[in-house]
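Continuing from the previous page of notes. For each protein in this section, the sequence appears first, followed by its structure tokens. Read the first protein now.
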Amino acid sequence: MALVCTVTLDKTAGITVKVENADGKITQTVTMDGSLITLTVAGENDTTTITQSATSVITTCVGQSDQSTVTQNETSITLECKGQSATSTISQSADTIALTCDTFKVTAKTITATASESDITLTASQGKVAVSGTSEVDVSGGMVKVTSDGQLDMTSSGIATLKGSITNVQGDLVNLG
């Protein structure tokens, strides 16, 4: 394996170090221009680049049809993955983590979500929100509301109990029994 190595010095463009591996079809380049340091490794079909300035670091991996980029500066980190048909993004700053994707999956032994000063809202703009448990599902609060714009069904294959200090059943037609 013979390598071709070049070093280019320029008073305005800076320094470039390039290593070419013709057998492996890989080119490695380091460029320093007085503002940025750029490291690039280019293969036959894929390229990775790390660009560093005084305020940020950007890492990019580009394949034939996909690309991922990590951008970090003093106030935030962003991870973006682009495929042929979809893009997912995770952005984090000091007070916010934002996630955008087609499918979001979490697998853990225990999941705890707590909003210390506000509400937790689950919304499905199309479709349904399903909550299930293999042994028990508990819903509790100072006030619990169940509201339906259409039909409301509550079904139990076992004993169903509706209990309160005062129990009020209302409707234009109430059928008990």
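Done with the first. The second protein uses the same format. Note its length before scrolling.
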Amino acid sequence: MSFDTKLPDFDTLAKLAKDDPVAFESLRTKLLEDAVAAAPERLQPSLRQTVATLNREREGKPPLEAAAAANSAMLSSFRQLATSMKGLQEECTGLYVSTRLREIAAKR
């Protein structure tokens, strides 16, 4: 499945959000659902959870605060990913070093 939906330009979206917030929210929800549906099946549950979390963060907030809340949640997630990747890199480095040491020892 692919996500081929063409987004309206920014000005059109901004006007829709201002003039008809219900329609804008409906479009936002549909686009998110389409994007999740286009993702590999194994990732869909996690993506649905992320969308639900972001929706809870946005609930009842003015648009700018909702955007800030979403940005904060994404930044937090990015930091967790960076921490995990750093740990993985350290593990890989340790494995490489121990493998090399065993190879050197085996040659003696």
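What the second structure shows: Residues 11 and 40 are 31 Å apart (CA to CA). The first helix runs from residue 10 to 19. We return to this in next week's lecture.
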